[in-house]
Input
Amino acid sequence: MHSSDPTQTGLTRTTAKIASPAPSLVEIIDQVVHAAAAKRVSVREILRAIGGAGFAAILLMPALAVTTPLSGIPMLSTVMGTIIFLVALQMLTGRENLWLPRWILNQQVNGDLVARAFNYVRRPAAWLDDRTNKRLVLFARKPLVSLPQLVCLCSGAVMPLLEFVPFSSSIVGFSVALFALGMLARDGMIILLGFLPLGFTLALLSTAFSQS
Output
């Protein structure tokens, strides 16, 4: 990934409370694909495209990115993991405006590559959208929602280390995506399902380290 104009501000702001209905997973993917129409697209431009939908929608972007073929780009898991960590941290602390450092916002990647990668996950995203509903809402509200937010924070923190373990960052990203989708749709069932990939990741890491 490359950095764009360093003179741009290091802030990006989004409203945590929105009046309009929460967007679907497919709608968020379409917004990212639309933002990636240029030859090169920055993290700032992608976040601007989805920022009005709130923190959970923004959390979905980096989580989905590492589940796509984009995860093969060197250092992408580190950048996306840092975004996940910072967004989850600010969700936990109750911030209304999101802050991200300039060096992250200025990261750029090939727009066509981003569009093809997010279109790659569009069909499974549509499948998830069709099965999302307001269930077990207690798990999508405070105080219980703080647990998946904390797990997202920890997942983002360890993601740079997972650069060296094949597929592990993609599995963790899938888990974070389920948490974010569950929070966005107020679907506690989806949030609970988000814990399953983490168990698989722990087993994968245990096997990897035991053989090293």
About this structure: The two ends are 30 Å apart (CA to CA).
